[in-house]
């Protein structure tokens, strides 16, 4: 085989100018992913498909299977012809390699309207040169023949892609990456909706070791299979937590930590012209994620917080974590920057008025600025 035929799903519902932009983004994302793995290729764009010409079909298939915006892909032969005679000659010469002697087969033909014959007639003419038993309803092997504007594609399987939209089509987000199970999954869901993601991680070194930092880096690296590049902001949070611990009662602390996290994330988002944040919060998963607390936490900032997992339960989240390969990293133990400072009975109904009163004791601006000044930035590509 000399390449991969790539189909996109949701792009069909868009206007042609939007679709052109999406195809450009998708092509760019495919090119970045292959260049990263040093795979040589040529990408041919047609009206409704892409064809990736490469000598390394197996590796390229494994890589681009993860790219959002692709609904399916098929390792394929591309013949620069639509002549039925030439296609028949090609099938006649090669079918022995494709279908074993005892296997049944079916030909499935499709064409654009430049071809005079019907799909059934094409399939029948091609099938006639294959000396194997035909079985149209349950064949062991299917030969797909697709005649398109630039020539003919021949392939045998349709591999499902992850669907969604190409990263870069839906704007930029800053994702709060705690390195637990939820945040990589919420990040993945937004990547799949076409958003470009950067990440922010808060750590409590020296009160903890650097396990959470290492995990957040590893998870950002892992998510790079779905996006061309990203940045991770690693923000020291210990000083803020100590200040909160010293000056406020235990019940409200988690809410106060979270309001600080959002404020710092908002400052960075605004600097980078990013319009919204993402978290892995799920309603009622833990005490900080009751509706009351979510509202009190959100109030600290003005830009929206997107919560793609809000209606998911833990089992549903774990299924996706395993599918995307983040689960194993997420469950590595870490000294979590909040659990370490977590009181025994955190409030589930944080009162905004009370929280604001407590915050008067804290120098919010200088604590936030100090954390940003000391943060580290890592770029992934
Ligand atoms: P995860 O949600 O990733 O599994 P978790 O369940 O321990 O970890 P929660 O305490 O439920 O995290 O926090 C909810 C959300 O708040 C996280 O999904 C993440 O988006 C954000 N968050 C929490 N802690 C941090 C942190 N240390 N750094 C960055 N974001 C964080
Ligand atoms: Mg969680």
Would you kindly provide a brief summary of this structure?
By secondary structure, the protein is of the alpha/beta class. The protein contains 13 helices and 15 strands. The longest helix is centred in the N-terminal third of the chain and has 21 residues, at about 15-35.
Key descriptive features of the protein:
Rossmann fold; binds magnesium ion; VC0802-like; alpha/beta; about 375 residues
Account of the protein in words:
There is one protein chain. The two termini are 29 Å apart. The mean pLDDT is 93. The chain has helices spanning 16-36, 57-64, 84-98, 119-127, 182-192, 211-223, 238-247, 253-271, 291-298, 314-324, 327-330, 352-359, 364-373; strands at residues 3-7, 42-45, 49-53, 72-79, 104-111, 133-134, 141-148, 151-155, 159-160, 172-176, 196-203, 230-236, 276-278, 305-306, 376-380. The chain has two domains: 3-162, VC0802-like (2-Layer Sandwich), CATH 3.30.2130.30; 172-380, Rossmann fold. Helix 5 links the parallel strand 10 (172-176) and strand 11 (196-203). The strands form two sheets. Strands 1, 2, 3, 4, 5, 6, 7, 8 and 9 form a nine-stranded mixed sheet that branches. The chain has a six-stranded mixed sheet with strand order 14-13-10-11-12-15, with helices on both faces. It has 381 residues and is of the alpha/beta class. The chain binds adenosine-5'-triphosphate and magnesium ion. Residues 180, 182, 280, 285 line the site of magnesium ion (MG).
Number of helices: 13
Could you say which small molecules are bound to this protein? adenosine-5'-triphosphate, magnesium ion
Biggest sheet, in brief? Answer: 9 strands, mixed
The SS-based structural class is alpha/beta
Q: What is the level 1 CATH name of the largest domain? A: Alpha Beta
Q: What's the CATH topology label of the largest domain?
A: Rossmann fold
Mean of pLDDT: 93
Q: What's the gyration radius in Å?
A: 26 Å
> What is the N-to-C succession of helices and strands?
EHEEHEHEHEEEEEHEHEHHEHEHHHHE
Low-pLDDT residue spans = none
Alpha-carbon distance between the termini?
Answer: 29 Å
| Strand percent estimate | 15-25%
